[in-house]
Amino acid sequence: MTEHVATNETILVVGGGISGMTAALEAAETGKNVVLVEKNPALGGRTSQLYRYFPKLCHPVCGLEINQRRLKNNPRVRVLTLAEVSGIEGSTGNYTATIRIKPRYVNENCTACGDCERAVEMQVPDPFNYNLGQHKAAFLPNAMAYPQRYVLDPAIIGSADAEKAKAACKYGAIDLDMKEETIQVKAGAVVWATGWQPYDAKKIQPYGYGRFKNVITSVEFERLADIHGPTGGKILRPSDGKEAKNIAFIQCAGSRDENHLRHCSRICCMASLKQTHYVREKYPEDGKSTIYYIDIRAIDRFEDFYQKVQADPSVSFVKSKVARISEDEHGNPVCWGVNTEGYKRYTTPHDLVVLAVGMEPSVKGVDIPGHIVADSSGFIEADPANGAVFGAGCASNALDVNRAVQSATAAALRAIQVVNKVAKAEA
Amino acid sequence: MSANTAVAEKYRNNFLKEIEEQVEMGDWVKMCMQCGVCSGSCPTNFQSAWEHPPQELFMMIRAGKREEVLTSSSMWNCTSCYNCIVRCPRKLPITHIMHGIAEYAHRLGMAPKLQPTRFFSGLFWKNATKTGRVNELKLSMGLYFKDGLGAGIKEGMKMKDVALGLMKAKRLNPFEIIKGHACKDQKGIQAMLKKAYEIERSRKAAKVAG
Question: Is B91 on the interface with A (CB under 8 A)?
Answer without folding.
Answer: yes
